[in-house]
Structures are given as structure tokens and as C-alpha cells.
Design a protein that fits this description.
The chain is α/β, with parallel strands linked by helices and about 625 residues long. The protein has helices at about 10, 15-25, 45, 60-80, 90-95, 105-120, 120-135, 145-155, 160-170, 175-190, 195-205, 210-230, 230-245, 315-320, 325-330, 340-350, 355-380, 400, 410-430, 440-450, 460-485, 560-580, 585-595, 610-620; strands at about 270-275, 295-300, 385-395, 435, 490, 515-520, 540-545, 545-550, 555-560, 595-600, 605. It folds into two domains: about 15-25 and about 60-245, no CATH class; about 270-320 and about 360-620, Rossmann fold (3-Layer(aba) Sandwich), CATH 3.40.50.
Length: about 625
């Protein structure tokens, strides 16, 4: 399916499209691995032929299904050579005979399940979904494609409404109770066919490619039918919800927290939030000020945006800020809350592509306004000795800066200049911990570039340009990590339920002794449904669902994402350095891993334990290798 938002959604993209990504599934093409230090080809080199005027003309459901099926099979061979497409029927019949499935192979198989559903081959679609659930390497995919499976089971049940509701409920009962709410929001979110029409129209503004064709096919061949039969889905949801609520509550995970407010051994530690901006007036008692009177580094292409917080137009803030909490309630599966209902009402009012685009852009801006301040509040909690430096980067809020387009070479130069300024500031002012709840992905770039058919004539050209941009950004981040070896960079893993190494997400995929990548768990201590992962690189997790913190207005709003889990861990890292300033980044990483609680199989990683980590740092004070 089309990528509906960036892979690291709350890091730098619209909150509502991020919700769609989590609910519908985020597909993406295979990355092209560039040569080291790749040069980004300019648009006039990439574009050799004009884009077709109307590539979508004449493509109904049968034609779209044939296009998606052909291209998904070809991509499947590319992304997982040990998976023989000729053996798919036997794999479907006996999933244990199939190799373990990479994330990109899962995406392509789900493309095939969509085409099978849209063309009425329901048994093939179900077997494909069951294959994915059984053999996906990422065990967060054990309940993939619930929306699609529920719809095809409804169709298999025939015309009787009661039988359809029973079939849907059977699918929903397969979900662990903590995953039930988030998995069922999509049935409540899409309420009218006008919403479907608007999404289709917006997608058709892009060039024709596997991802865009798959998205249109999903909306036309699957989601439209769900909307038409929405009452049966809502009835089944109500039945299963009542059953879940009648059972004893699941035990919550006991997250550990430490408050250093009265700690006599705590010393000042300079920490940074590299993000879309943080409101300095909310943190005056903990604000770091350098010798020149500055609080950090500001970078924005708009000359009027010179504050430490991005400032949308007042009318945007007034109208759309009230939707922040509702979006997060929906992501958490709480569709009946007043705030969630407000968001559903907003979405019901969207009747055309212009309204959809305007809503997306407005929520992008509000998300960028709120995000960095929310992160800063988490980072500083319980540690009055932490002094905040603000690194406001418009490039971190990429969905606003590059809305429906890719960066120019000049803008990429500005990104590099921003990184060099931040590196100089970090070294000059001895910033010990930086939280970076941000990231960049090839598939997000590809989605943006497909909006520019005047510059890129083919999807191969789009993929080449995106890969080269990604290579440049990866080089930039590796450079600053090397330039600031005494600074611990705590990075959000991302929110696309995928392996950070397979997809080469930046900066999360970069291996360095002073980089710590953080995934998210929910309040029960389970992997969040959206969290990115990798058993070797994402070894630490913290709470990332409904995390309370402050936004620039001073209000408190619970938000969700690895963007919220990451500053929770950065907060603990700063506390360790506060009680033992001699700790190196590598030793802080080791302490956090050695003292965390193991996450139960089939998942991996450890949930940080603040009290044990701080106690251990105090016991070992003076014995660990010293920071320079």
C-alpha cells in the first residue's frame, strides 16, 4: 500500500497521517544501496522524458490488480531471492515450508493479498495473510492485515448481515486484548465514501507506481466496501469489546522512575533536544544559555521563523490544536473518547482532495509546533540539574518543509550546514546527551518525489534520487556522531513496525559507540504495535504510548510514538551522567542494558529500569572509564 506518511511518523510528520500509517500498514519499495559518499543527481539529469499526462486513465479494478500483482511479484524476487514466487501456492498451503519473511517481502505479499481480495479470490487472500502472520521475521506482524482479513471473511459469509458480523468478530477475537483498540479504529475512522474518493484523488496526483497503484486498489477494492458495510463492522467491534471488558484487566508493567530533585550528589548536565523546536519559556529554570546568550541553534528556510519553536499561523493553532489528543486517543484505540470523536467529526467533513490536503498540512504544522516541546518535557522530568539546549531544525520537521516534494540540492546543503553548526555548538558547550526523535527513510522520500512527475519521468528515476539523498543524509549523521564522541545521541527507532537495518532508516541504522536507538512499549510492557526494531540495534525500550508531557501552549497532552520513548531513555542517561559525570557514552549504554528488564518472547530487547541503573552508577562511581 502507498506510504501514507513518513516511516518515523511522530518524529517529523502529520499526526493524523501517522495514524493512518499505523492502521492501514506502511508499505515501501526496496531501497537502492548507493555507493559511499554518493552524489545526489540533480533533477535536470534525472528527468530525461516528460511524465505521462494521465497515467491513471483506463485503470479500473481489474487493470490495477494486474499491474500491482505483476510489479509486486517482480519486487518480491528482488527483495528476497530465497523466496521462490513459483512456490507461493505451496507456501500458502504449508507456511512452515516458507523461509522467514523480511519486512519488504511481507509488504509485497500483502500487496498480493489486496489484489486477491479486490478480484474476489478470497481463499488465496486469506492464505497469503496467514503465511505472513506465521513466517514474518518481525513478530509484531503476527497480527498483520486485520482490516483486510476482516473484510474478506465478511465477504465469505455471504449476504446475511448477522453471519457477516459473526465472521468479523471471529477475526477480531484473534487479537490480543491490548492490540484490539488500535486495530479496530480504521473501521470507525472511514465513515463516508467521500473520504475514500478524496484519498484516491490525492494518490492519483502522483505518478503511477507499485506503491501508488496498490494504495488506489486498497481504497477502491477493499476500503470502499468496508465503508459501505460499516454498520456490520461496528456491531462486531461492540460485541468483542464487551467480551474483552468482561475479562479481568491485564496487569500493567511496573515502570521505574527516579527523581533527582533532592539528590545531593547530582551535578549539572547539559542536554539537547534536536527536534522541530522547543518552547524555552516553559523551561526557564532549566534552560542552558551559552556565553553569547543563545540557547542553541535555529535553522529554518523561512526568514520569519527565527524562534526556538516553529510558529504556525494563529488560525491554524486555534482550529487544529484541539485535535492533538484525539489523534492519539484513536491511535491508542480509544475511539469513544470526546477528543477522538472530535477527530472523527473532522474527518467526516472531508469531501474532496483539497480539503484532505488542507487538513493534512494543518495537522503537519500543529504536530511540528508541539513535538519538540513535548519531547523536551519528557527529557527534563525529575532532573533539575539537566540544562536544556535547543536545536531547532526545520529539516527534522520534513513533512512541512518538503510537503509533496523532495529536497533540492541547495536545501541538502542547508541541512549539512545545520548539522555542522550543531556539532560546533555541542563540542563548544559540552552537551552530554542529545535526544533526536527524528529520522529519514528512502520510502518516505520516494513518496514525496512521486508528486513531481515534471522532474522525474519514471519510478526508477524517483528511486535513484531518493537513494542518493538518503546516502547523503546518512553520511551527514555518521559525521556528527564521529565529531562528537563524548556526546550520547539517543535516537528514536521509528514507527513503521519494521527492521531499521533492512530499511536503512537514518540515523537509527547507523552503528556508533555513542548512539543508542530506542523502541517503544505500551503500558503492559509489550512492543507497541508501531515500533521499529532490530534484535542487535534496538536493544532498549521504554514507554511510548500515551506519554504525558507539555506542548508550547502550556497544556499537557499524552502523545504516542518512539519519539516519546526515546526521551524517556535520554532522561535516564542524563540522570546517570548527573550522578557520575565521568561516564562515557559507551558505559551509559552498557549500564542501561545491564540493568533493564528483559521483554518476553517472541519479542526482544530490554525495558530500562531507572532505579537499578542509577543505583548501579552510584555504586560504580569512579571505577568506570572516564569521559574526555
Amino acid at each position: 500500500m502507498r506510504r501514507l506518511t513518513a516511516s518515523l511518523a511522530p518524529s517529523r510528520s502529520a499526526l493524523f497521517p501517522a495514524l493512518l500509517c499505523a492502521l492501514l500498514g506502511c508499505g515501501g519499495p526496496a531501497a537502492i544501496t548507493p555507493a559511499p559518499h554518493a552524489t545526489v543527481p540533480p533533477p535536470d539529469v534525472v528527468a530525461t522524458q516528460p511524465a505521462p499526462r494521465s497515467p491513471w486513465d483506463g485503470l479500473g479494478t481489474p487493470e490495477l490488480a494486474a499491474f500491482v500483482s505483476e510489479h509486486a511479484m517482480a519486487r518480491l524476487r528482488e527483495v528476497q531471492p530465497d523466496l521462490d514466487p513459483a512456490q507461493l501456492d505451496s507456501y500458502r498451503a504449508a507456511p512452515t515450508t516458507a523461509p522467514l519473511l523480511s519486512g519488504r517481502a511481507v509488504e509485497r505479499l500483502l500487496d498480493l493479498a489486496v489484489t486477491a481480495t479486490a478480484t474476489g479470490h478470497l481463499d488465496d487472500a486469506e492464505k497469503t495473510i496467514r503465511l505472513v502472520r506465521a513466517r514474518a521475521k518481525n513478530r509484531n506482524s503476527a497480527f498483520a492485515a486485520t482490516t483486510l482479513l476482516a473484510e474478506l471473511k465478511r465477504r465469505q459469509a455471504g449476504d446475511d448481515g448477522a453471519a457477516q458480523e459473526t465472521a468479523i468478530a471471529t477475526v477480531l477475537r484473534e487479537l490480543p486484548r491490548p492490540r484490539f483498540g488500535a486495530a479496530t479504529v480504521v473501521f470507525q475512522l472511514f465513515q463516508t465514501e467521500a473520504q475514500v474518493d478524496a484519498n484516491v484523488a490525492q494518490t492519483k496526483e502522483q505518478m503511477l507506481a507499485l506503491e501508488t497503484a496498490g494504495s488506489v486498489l486498497y481504497f477502491e477494492g477493499v476500503l470502499r466496501s468496508i465503508v459501505q458495510n460499516r454498520a456490520h463492522f461496528l456491531a462486531a467491534i461492540a460485541t468483542v469489546r464487551a467480551e474483552n471488558e468482561a475479562r479481568p484487566a491485564d496487569a500493567l508493567f511496573a515502570f521505574s522512575t527516579v527523581d533527582l530533585t533532592r539528590a545531593r550528589d547530582a551535578q549539572d548536565v547539559v542536554v539537547g533536544v534536536w527536534d522541530t523546536g522547543s518552547q524555552p519559556t516553559l523551561f526557564e529554570s532549566q534552560l542552558f544559555t551559552d556565553a553569547a546568550g543563545a540557547h542553541g541553534v535555529i535553522s529554518d528556510p523561512l526568514p520569519e521563523q527565527t524562534a526556538y519553536t516553529y510558529q504556525p499561523a494563529p488560525e491554524i493553532l486555534e482550529r487544529y490544536t484541539p485535535f492533538l489528543r484525539g489523534v492519539m486517543d484513536l491511535r491508542a484505540g480509544m475511539a469513544s473518547s470526546p477528543d477522538a470523536q472530535r477527530v472523527l467529526e473532522l474527518e467526516r467533513s472531508i469531501t474532496d482532495v483539497d480539503a484532505l490536503r488542507a487538513t493534512d498540512r494543518a495537522l503537519d504544522e500543529v504536530g511540528e509546533w508541539a513535538h519538540g516541546t513535548h519531547v523536551a518535557g519528557i527529557l527534563l522530568a525529575g532532573n533539575p540539574k539537566a540544562k536544556l539546549a535547543i536545536f531547532r531544525s526545520a529539516w527534522a520537521g520534513e513533512s512541512r518543509t518538503y510537503f509533496e516534494r523532495g529536497p533540492t540540492d541547495a536545501e541538502l546543503d542547508a541541512e549539512r550546514a545545520n548539522i555542522e553548526r550543531i556539532a560546533a555548538y555541542v563540542r563548544a558547550n559540552h552537551v552530554r546527551v542529545i535526544n533526536a526523535s527524528l529520522g529519514f527513510s528512502v520510502d518516505y522520500l520516494e513518496d514525496a518525489l512521486r508528486h513531481q512527475p515534471d522532474l522525474y519521468a519514471t519510478d526508477d528515476a524517483v528511486r535513484a534520487r531518493a537513494a542518493a539523498i538518503q546516502a547523503r543524509r546518512k553520511e551527514n549523521w555518521a559525521w556528527i556522531f564521529a565529531q562528537c564522541p563524548d556526546t550520547l545521541f539517543v535516537v528514536a527507532a521509528g514507527n513503521s513496525n519494521r527492521d531499521i537495518l533492512e530499511y536503512d532508516d537514518v540515523p537509527a541504522s547507523i552503528d556508533a559507540p555513542n548512539v543508542l536507538v530506542v523502541g517503544a512499549v505500551d503500558k503492559w510492557g509489550n512492543w507497541a504495535t508501531f515500533t521499529n526494531s532490530n534484535p542487535e540495534r534496538v536493544r532498549l525500550f521504554d514507554l511510548g504510548v500515551e506519554v504525558d508531557s507539555v506542548i508550547p501552549s502550556g497544556a499537557h497532552v499524552p502523545l504516542s510514538g518512539t519519539s516519546m520513548a526515546s526521551p524517556n531513555v535520554a532522561n535516564l542517561a542524563a540522570k546517570l551522567i548527573s550522578v557520575d559525570p565521568a561516564l562515557t557514552p559507551a558505559r551509559v549504554r552498557a549500564l542501561l542494558e545491564e540493568t533493564g528488564d528483559a521483554i518476553a518472547a517472541p519479542f526482544s530487547g530490554r525495558i530500562v529500569h531507572e532505579q537499578r541503573a542509577v543505583d548501579r552508577a552510584r555504586r560504580e562511581r569512579g571505577r568506570a572509564p572516564r569521559a574526555r
